[in-house]
Amino acid sequence: MNSDLNFMNNVTGFKCFECARMFTVDEVKYVCPECGGNLDVRYDYERINQQFSKASLAADRNFTIWRYRPLLPIEESSPLPPLSVGWTPLYDAPRLAAEFGVRQVLVKDDGRNPTASFKDRPSALAVVKAMEAGATVATTASSGNAGAALAGICASVGMKSVIFVPATTPAAKVAQLQIYGATVVLVEGSYEQACELCLAASERFGWYQRTTGYNAFTAEGKKTAAFEIAEQLHWQVPDRVIVGVGDGNIIGGLWKGFCDLRQLGWIDRLPKLTGVQADGAAPLVAAVNGDGVIRPVVGQTIADGINVGDPRDGTRAMRAMRDSGGGAVAVSDEEIIAAIPRLARATGVFAEPGAAAAFAGFVKLREQGVIQSDERVVLISTGSGLKDINTARRSVGEPLRIQPDVAELNKLKV
Ligand SMILES: *Cc1c(COP(=O)(O)O)cnc(C)c1O
Ligand SMILES: [Zn+2]
After folding, report:
1. What is the position in ligand 1's atom list of the atom closest to the CA of 353?
2. DSSP line for 110-134
3. What is the set of domains in the chain, with CATH numbers?
4. Could you read off the pLDDT of 273-286 as tens digits, one per residue?
């Protein structure tokens, strides 16, 4: 094993997704200095293989995203936030597999993270980078979950956070921000407008900027879910992974994670990555299924986590969906709402709308025959259903209401 364990030395630099220029770690803070494009963190996989193996992982009792530290762009000596992020359960869902006639369906329940969404993965990494940079304030624009995650993880290390969210953000997510002590800015506008405002604010006040599609490290945090899926399946790669897509950073990060493992020689093939968007906010579906050009729309869907009309990480997402062969599908809000109780009743996992979209996409693609009967499919539930109970309640009727009287129980038709 290599004794030089500064993991940052495993990073060889950044590569721009748009212009393909390379930069050293010291040359860049956020986006490409030449064209403003998003950056990809590059690694020396030979070096990583000297520090790290499937066997060393198997012996590691740290069941958080930090078990993959040699594959993350952080200093070895960096203090890590105390909240337990990642290593979320991957549940087998045999009744769904039987109902839909596929080999296996698995659900990765990322609602089990500390602030109840997938966004704890990128936000935890961003807070480490903010601490490395000596920042005292971190900021992000968010449709809700990224902000809640940043606020919660900042609270765990005593860092201040300033969060910009659209004023339409579901109440539970806004409450989370306030409870964690963030300075909350409700923006009377779209998520895209909240992003622009947040970027202007961090430039002006020098805050550490976590916003998706601007901070190159968020995708590195997100890729840990791919590592977990592969490890939890004993390095047997599933045929397909399905996830809700807004900015496209999750699906791009997942692709990065599987490609990292392939580069290390730890897996022998790559899964198809299938992105699901809502009909009212589906510019990436249109691009993947059309001419490859992303044409922004005004996003309109009840699934706030994926209500993005102008994806901030579209190029990376397109590459994941096209290069993996997984493609993209759009589902209606009605299909998303119906998917929430259907998934919950078949698995016990209560997903928020942006998360249930993955299951709605699965249903649609299976019915269309795109998903084959011999496939092993992983659905990622990206956030807890408790994040947005108002939408969830639209999928169920009113509960029974009775007087506290045994005779009244006859009303129950169980
Ligand atoms: C953010 C989010 C997504 C989509 O992630 P992107 O990186 O924006 O594509 C999906 N589901 C939920 C619940 C989210 O919060
Ligand atoms: Zn560039």
Report:
1. 13
2. GGGSTTSBTTHHHHHHHHHHHHHTT
3. 90-115+218-394 (3.40.50.1100)
4. 999 999 999 999 99
